Amino acid sequence: MSDFREALESISKSPCSKHPGFSAALACIRCGTFICAFCASSSGGLCFRCLHAAPELATRRARLAASLVDGVALLLPSLLLGVLRCLALPDEAAMTAPAVYVPALLVLLVQASLIRGAGASLGKRLLGIRVVRRDGRPAEVWRIALLRNALPIALCGYCGWFSLVDALFIVGEDRRCLHDWLAGTRVVKAPRSPRSFAARLVTG
């Protein structure tokens, strides 16, 4: 107990590395640098240096697998509903009915909620990766939805070669597709989160 008390006293007498006028409340959970209570509450227990350290880039296989999961999650519910409508109403154009697209809309709303919370869609969460801005800060929902998704889809409709060019950009050292450059984002491994079975299967 005495060693523990001495450690606490040593921390309380040390200044914060970012706010020298404040006493330290605890040590950074990553590097051990002393930080004050404000830093601890606003940065999740990390010092300023560790908070803004460059995260590890997501692997290309993980990004591909996440895209496939998101695609299946978006298309499969509507496809199943369309098939059921075809079986129940064989004489109607069931696949073109507006109701078929309701599940896809619900999936998009769920995806937007997931992205807002952690910057990661369903597929990216399963693979343990997320989208951040180029400087490492969290990416806004509008940036991901409009610049990373809606704009590339619109460009694909205008020029069919865009999807191929977009995908080929990932072979670069930054592992950023063309839509990442357009949105000012990159895909990194999610910090301090246990990897799912899907992530371990794809990334090893």
Distance between the termini: 42 Å
Strand order of the largest sheet: 1-2
Amount of helix: 40-55%
Radius of gyration: 23 Å
Share of residues in strands? 5-15%
Average of the residue pLDDT scores: 76
Domain RDD: 58-184
Organism: Myxococcus xanthus (strain DK1622)
Keywords: Cell membrane, Membrane, Transmembrane, Transmembrane helix
Protein name: RDD family protein
Description:
- This protein starts with a helix and ends with a helix.
- It is mainly alpha-helical.
- It has helices at 2-12, 37-42, 48-51, 60-88, 102-118, 122-127, 141-158, 162-168, 178-183, 197-203; strands at 26-27, 34-35, 129-133, 185-189.
- It folds into two domains: 2-51, no CATH class; 60-72 and 117-203, no CATH class.
- Helix 4 (60-88) packs antiparallel against helix 5.
- The chain has a two-stranded antiparallel sheet.
Summarize this entry quickly.
Helix content is 54%, strand content 7%. With 204 residues, the chain is mainly alpha-helical. It has 2 domains: 2-51, no CATH class; 60-72 and 117-203, no CATH class.
List keywords for this structure.
10 helices, transmembrane helix, about 200 residues, two-stranded antiparallel sheet, RDD, mainly alpha, Pra-immunoreactive, about 55% helix, transmembrane
Give the topology.
Elements: H1 2-12, E1 26-27, E2 34-35, H2 37-42, H3 48-51, H4 60-88, H5 102-118, H6 122-127, E3 129-133, H7 141-158, H8 162-168, H9 178-183, E4 185-189, H10 197-203
Antiparallel strand pairs: 1-2, 3-4
